[in-house]
Specification:
Helix content: 25-40%
Strand content: 15-25%
Distance between the termini: 49 Å
Largest sheet: 7 strands, mixed
Number of helices: 15
Radius of gyration: 27 Å
Amino acid sequence: MTLALRLRERGFGVTLFEASDRTGGLAKPTQIGKYSWDQFYHVILMSDINLLDLLMRLGLSDRLKWSKTKTGFLNDGHLYSMSNIMEFLTFPPLRILDKLRLGLTIFYTSKIKSPAKLEKILVEDWLRKLSGKRTFTKIWLPLLKSKLGENYKVASASFIWASIDRMYKARRTGLKTEMFGYVDGGYAAILDRFQKTLDDLGVKTICQSRVTRVADNNSHVNIGISTGESLKFDYVILTLPCLELPCLCPQLSDEEKKRLKRVILMAQKSLAGYYITNLTDGWVPFTAVIEMTAVVDKTFFDGNSLIYLPRYVSANNVFCKKGDREIQEEFVSALERIYPQFKRGDIVASKIVRGKNVLPITTLDYSKELLPPVQTSLKRVFIVNSAQIVNGTMNVNEIVGLANRKSKEIIEFMSNNIKEEIENAKDFIDLFTTSKIEFMAISKEGETPLIYGKNLPELVKKKIELMGKHINDEPYIDPNYMMRRAAMPVF
């Protein structure tokens, strides 16, 4: 949606295809009993400049709400608070030396300006070296497994750098404390305003239409959609996960297909239930207990608490084959074990939400070996997706920032195509005026709506002049052009 917004603001005609019944992707709302809220948990940090800028563009800045938050840890069956320096220093599971090394690991990592070198180091090796074996085993390993599953073994150290960097940026905003925010009404309010903005700008949005085929024909791109239609566009930008692109666009080179298929993606499952803390005990079946009503006003839920219990797994994990009832039973049983005061009868409503291909894993030498370039081997087909987030975590702010950056790159590519068109036009004039072979029909009487005249070289020269004159201008679509060209005769 941000990509469509930025391109339309520069004057390009944009058509947005969405496979589901509404736009928004992972930020869409879901119904939990009689309540509606984000299907996956999202918060806004004060350092999320890309997202905050977008909210200002949409006129939603005045609907932002902020709350101070606290952090908890479950370790060896005990719940501990770790929300300030004193609680960190008195954290029982770690010895003084362990705490010192853990603190230095976080501080040192936060000071690294360029994480490129970290792509050559496994995250496990990096953390073991800096924090020590005990701290890695007690703290880092459970957290890595909860977020990456067994893929932590192939993830590079840039993953932990990105996670630490985002939280440090939030604290650098001046308050030196964790402040999480949300928009009144959740992402449903943001997406509704966003869609209206796109509609008002003239972006055409087609929902419940999955793109099934993309073919570059040099002068244009043909796409097929699930309704059976075949449509033609000047350019196509693919925002689907990498693993889906080779089948969707078989014209991609073998090297591109191989690169795209090697990107490792995680899937996420969430249950709306109860409570919040980070978890380091390996037996717990979910990543964390996230109480959104520590940030969001409980009045949205009639005074009840909104809890997310996320879990990230690889696509081939046996957990993916479990049914909703089995997952819910596991999760609720774990909650009862963690919180003795909690009873499953306390649950007002619950829902399992599954998301495929959510989190790309930055493996060793990811930027060099796997990072998908924006420009494909097909001149008119581009790729923009979450696999291009290298030095950041998977969140809405990063997605918005990615769309902002890539829209500029795509516009630059299009500008280069105009330069190439100018050179092609010059070559055509040279061929037309010097060739001894008649290779196209022309009219000696002058041009007509059906055939070119002998003045064709002059017309092409005029085209070259206009393209060169306006190459740096923002695109503009004149809706009244045809009406003016076909003006009624005056009697």
